[in-house]
Amino acid sequence: MRDRYLTVALDIATGKPRCMMRINIAAMMCGVLGLPYVVFGQHQTPPITRTAEQSITGDWIIHFQVGHQTVSGNLHFQADGERLTGTVETEHTGPGTIQNGKWSNRKFDATLVFKKHESIVLQGELKDNGTVAGNYTTEGRTETWQAERKTAAASNSTADSMRNRKH
Length: 167
Known about the structure:
- With about 170 residues, the chain is of the alpha+beta class.
- It has helices spanning about 1-10, 20-40, 150-165, and strands at about 60-65, 70-80, 85-90, 95-105, 105-115, 120-125, 130-140, 140-150.
- A hairpin with a 5-residue loop joins strand 6 (about 120-125) and strand 7 (about 130-140).
């Protein structure tokens, strides 16, 4: 009886116990099937590096649409993680600060607070073209606004003035 048990338990060709072969086969299958996971599934994506185009931080020229008119001014955003602060000033509002600002996934909302003007609730998004735009609410109405970086606004202004000189 003992010989029969050993014969069944041993592989005739290799002399190894069959249970060992099963373990080897199982280990090999795990290796083959797990290899794509190791090669493709565990890689780390590189951290996102914020460029000027992806960050809202900086100086902007803001344009508030007020009825059929546009009121322009200076806007400075400072993003620190999800916290958004800064300053704003137009001829109509005077100087103000950005309070309660939240910045996440290229979108933000904040309150512009002024000494001589009602607060403005500003909502917006950093667009793929590098501008920011959205809606604002003040004095019981909601309208649109947009802004471009000061450097972009300055170069556009220079290009416009050069075109006008040629005519």
